[in-house]
Amino acid sequence: MAEGDSQENPSANVPRSQSLDALVLECPICLEQLQHPKSLPCLHSFCQECLGSYITKELSGKMALSSSFSCPVCRKITEPLNQSEDKEGWAEQFPTNNLAVEMIKHLQNTDSLIMPCTSCESKGNMKVMAKFWCDHNQSYFCADCKTSLHDLVHRNCEPENITEWNKSAAIRRKMSSTKCGKHKEKLDYYCGDHQHLGCHKCIIVDHRKCEVVTSADDFRDKLTSGRIDSLLGELRKCVHAMEILKKDAKEQLESMTESKVTALQSLSDLRTMINGRLDTLQKELTDKLTASFKEERENLDISRQKCEWLMVAMLKTLTLSRDTALKEDAVETIRLFQRGQAEVESCKGLIQELGKSSRSTSLKHEYNPEILAINTDFSLTMGGIIVDQQQRRLPDTPWFTPLSKRQLKITRKFSIKVPSDERDCIALGIVLLSNGRIVVGDYQNDKVKLFTDNGEFQYEVNLVEPSCDLCRIDNSTVAVTLLKDQTICIVRVHDNTLTLVSKIELQNVAENSFVYGISFLNNTFVVGTATSIYTVPRDKGIATKLHPVASRCLHIAYDNLNGHVFASIDTASSDDVAVIRLSDGMHTDILRVGIVKGAKGIDVDREGNIYVCASRSHNVIQMSGDGTNVRELLTSSDGIKCPRAISLLDDQVLITSEDLDLRNMVQVFQLV
Predict the structure, then answer these.
(1) Alpha-carbon distances, residue 341 vs 40, 76, 193, 348, 543 (angstroms)
(2) Which of 159-173, 273-287, 296-310 has maximum average pLDDT?
(3) What is the DSSP letter of 68?
(4) Type and span of the H or E element at 325
(5) Which residues of 634-668 are buried (b: 16+ CB within 10 A; e: fewer)?
(6) Which of 617, 556, 632, 560 has its CA nearest to residue 587?
(7) How many CB atoms lie within 10 A of CB 456?
(8) How far is CA 577 from the centre of its chain?
(9) CB contact set of 399 (below 8 Å; sequence gap of 6+)
(10) Taking the model in full, what pTM does it have?
(11) 381-397 residue pLDDT tens
């Protein structure tokens, strides 16, 4: 054996209960030993300074009247004891975790772990340390007092030797943890109505009218091993889900970093080709690229940090659940069970939240190669930075319901008719933007209108003639088609105003054809008429025929996930094509007239599911991108009549109608 092998491993002698204590005493935020530990109502403890910094950071930028915050671990909404106090002092209001304070003292001073002999202490001698603990008498005894006092009275009682560190600490911890923090009495009752552990004084004062009050031992007995095992199984699934999401966030950051490097190299190459004439523009674009990257990186880091905090907390719960001593303690078993329940619910909520907000971000540098040509009409520029964000489906994890399995639930309605309107409205186009703004094209009043997410009217722009479909160009720009004028209008969307910035007059479109549907992808518009679907470059109005249609193509949608274009065809003739898919120069008939008659509004969700409004069959359907899975989401029995336009963002759905009673309204639904 080598010389070094004979040396004693210090960590090998650390009692198991000590490692568990160290785990319990770790702050989930700084991952260091708790300093001035404060406990929230959900039973998670944090350093006072860490909790104060977290509260200040979470509420920064929010309304000054914010009266609550979410627990950093389980995200349970928590209110301070005194909301009128400055937010910087909220952390100090929460009760100190006295058990943690005592355990920290134990860890820092092992000499004080053995208690004085109770009998000797009563005689004024504080220096005689106990070696035995009598659970029956709840007293400590030295060796002499055990023999001369305890054994003479309690011959059939055998005290426990507590000279080992972990036994003494466990007894002291048990004595401290079973005391009511308010009355310093034993915690021996449980109120099922309020899920509260308390002493007999708590029950008499605060819970005397509650119906479900039992002893702690009785409630512990009701927590069958099956329920606890089921909870532990869910915790393991949650840990697995957090591992998947952490890995996914890392992969997305790596992909985005790679695209950033490529874009920066493109900028550098172009800078060389134009002989260093555009230093200022290059700096502006580099700053935009870096700022966009930083913003998206921070979003991914926040998601990853949420997963990390929750996963660490659940791993602690799982570790503590294996402690036999804790399982035999009714109070600690109930607390551990409550903590696990809160963490499971938080995990489910976080997965749903990330499922709604998940995006795939790519940073690109684009420029027109013709700027390098001699005698060109193009201005010499450095191009632009394109932040391409596409909806993305999360990796499969427990408790995430795909949109293809959800139902539509109406949440509210709001009117789009404003005092300046001369007629009732008919909204043939609608777009929901990521900032919550809603843009509506009013055919009857020749307007484009702006509303907030709660339906409050903000602004309107008058058009020269009736409009039809609307589409999103980016988060602050939309396009609208003018029916007779064969024109596309570009409208800039501000916080509370609209600006008509430009018009694109279409060329090569059949004479006297009305222009109906519109969508936008890769700097190109796709528009529909009564006979054909065309592509139109954004910088030019020259249309190129893409595919002929047998009836009016009133609406078009673009699938960001798969790169497909979907067009609805307004027909009710049996076996006619109702929806077609265009991709890579090919077309596919994916839905024929049947359950859908008079297909009009169409849109695509982040998972690639297609939604179609059918005005003549009075329904809204959802189908897969290949048309194989079709189901009705809304019918006339749900109050749907002549649905016309539809717009989706995450799990929110807006629908307009041509029905006489609903034409002035927008119906707002949620996929649940």
Answers:
(1) 16, 12, 16, 11, 59
(2) 296-310
(3) -
(4) helix 324-327
(5) beeebebebbbbbbbbbbbbbbbbbbeebbbbbbb
(6) 556
(7) 11
(8) 39
(9) 241, 347, 348, 351, 352
(10) 0.53
(11) 778 888 877 667 777 77
